[in-house]
Amino acid sequence: MFQQYRYHFLLHLIIFMWGFTGILGKLIHLDALLIVWHRLWIAALALAVYMFFAKKMIFPKGKTLFWAVMVGLVVALHWLTFYTSIQLSTASLGILCLSTTTLHVTWLEPLIMHKRFSWIEFSMGLLVIGGIYFVAHDFKGEELKAVLIGLVSALCAGVFSVANGKLAQQTDTPGLSLTELTTGFIALSIFFMSQGKWSMDLFEMTASDFYWLLFLGILCTSFAFLATIDIVKRLGAFSVSLSINLEPIYTILLAIVLLKEHKLLQTSFYWGAAMILLVVLANGIWKHKQRKIANTNYGNAI
């Protein structure tokens, strides 16, 4: 039985780890910029080691390389704004803002992937925005700033998700990811140099911070990425994408248990959170039905 469900188990383990990345924004006692910088070089190094021993040193070229570099900058900005949002407020709020990625994908896919615009998906995205209103309508000062930064993070997530969907059709995915991670690392390193902060002080941290960063970079980033590729081949893209919708739930539950964030959140937060999560799950179910209809029509045509 374990053999039959091992890929399902592995998938939910990875989603659990992704849900934990938001918690690490609170557990690691470094500012957001340093967390992202360390995550980038650790993940890139781990991925490079894998590619070397697997003999898969294939990298994007030409225009694909140019766009991979651009997407790498967006990835770095996404992580930076994500952790900044969390550090200004709570992990629960940060992950809920990230749920608005769905809205951005609905208008980015027609532009980048040339897919038909879906008013149903766009409407679902607007409902997510409504949920964010319930979550944040009483926020002021730093909390309101955290919401706005979190929404920018969601926009960046939408951009690199859709862009990577297209770039992955043109080049080997591990090489694409390594290019993006390396680009983000170089960009942040140049920033540190321009600010006169390039020194060994960048590596000053507690032992617990170091171990959490290794967990974040190696397991939550490099391993999760490589394992997900294999899981998609085994279970299919829809099963994976639908299950990933559970990430906000995992993050909120972890935040309640580990960070006691339920003491900081109002009742309106949970109403808004429930609305967002229901819309995200409904979106996945609707896409599943659309895919079944498309497969049925294709089969009839044959």
Distance between the amino and carboxyl termini: 35 Å
Kindly state the number of beta strands.
0
Please report which band the strand proportion falls in: under 5%, 5-15%, 15-25%, 25-35%, 35-45% or over 45%.
under 5%
Q: Could you state the order of secondary-structure elements as H and E?
A: HHHHHHHHHHHH
Features of this protein?
single chain, about 300 residues, mainly alpha, 12 helices, globular, disordered C terminus
Question: Could you outline the blueprint of secondary structure elements for this entry?
Answer:
Blueprint: H1 2-27, H2 32-54, H3 62-88, H4 91-98, H5 101-112, H6 119-136, H7 141-167, H8 173-194, H9 207-235, H10 237-244, H11 247-259, H12 267-301
Helix pairs in contact: 1-3, 1-4, 1-9, 1-11, 2-3, 2-8, 2-9, 3-4, 3-7, 3-8, 4-7, 4-11, 5-6, 5-7, 6-12, 9-10
Task: Walk me through what this model shows.
With 302 residues, the chain is mainly α. The chain has one domain (15-301). It has 12 helices and no strands.
Brief summary:
By secondary structure, this protein is an all-alpha fold. The relative contact order is 0.18.
